[in-house]
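Hi all, posting the design record for the shared folder.

TITLE: backbone redesign
STEP: 1 of 1
STRUCTURE INPUT:
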C-alpha cells in the first residue's frame, strides 16, 4: 500500500495517497517511513493539524518546517511565515531547515 500511496502522491491525488499510506501504517505501525509518508500526504493536502497529531516537539518542528516550505512553494507567504516561525519555536533544539526556509521566504517577499 505504501507504493500505491507514492503513486497517488506523484499524481497529486492526496486523498488517495492518504488512504493507502494510512492503511500501510495500520499494517506496520512501527514503520516510520509509512508514518512519514502519511503525514507528508496530509501536509500536501493542507491538512496541517492532522499531520501534527500525536507527534513529539522534534517531529513537529520538522513537519512544520516542511509545511512552511510547501506553503511558500504555493506562494502562500503569510501561512509559510507562521508555520516556519512555529517550527523554530517548538523545536527543542536549533532547527536549521526552518531557519533556512525563513531566509528563503524573506528573499521571495522582497
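Okay, here is what came back for every position:
SEQUENCE:
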Amino acid at each position: 500500500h505504501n507504493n500505491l500511496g507514492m503513486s497517488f502522491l506523484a499524481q497529486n491525488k492526496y486523498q488517495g495517497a492518504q488512504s493507502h499510506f494510512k492503511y500501510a501504517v495500520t499494517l506496520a505501525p512501527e514503520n516510520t517511513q509509512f508514518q512519514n509518508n502519511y503525514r507528508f500526504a496530509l501536509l500536501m493536502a493542507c491538512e496541517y493539524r492532522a499531520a501534527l497529531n500525536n507527534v513529539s516537539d522534534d517531529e513537529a518542528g520538522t513537519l512544520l518546517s516542511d509545511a512552511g516550505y510547501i506553503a511558500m512553494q504555493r506562494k502562500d507567504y503569510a501561512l509559510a511565515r507562521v508555520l516556519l516561525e512555529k517550527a523554530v519555536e517548538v523545536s527543542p533544539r536549533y532547527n536549521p531547515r526552518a531557519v533556512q526556509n525563513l531566509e528563503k521566504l524573506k528573499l521571495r517577499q522582497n
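COMMENT: The longest helix spans residues 57-73.
Let me know if anyone wants the other runs.
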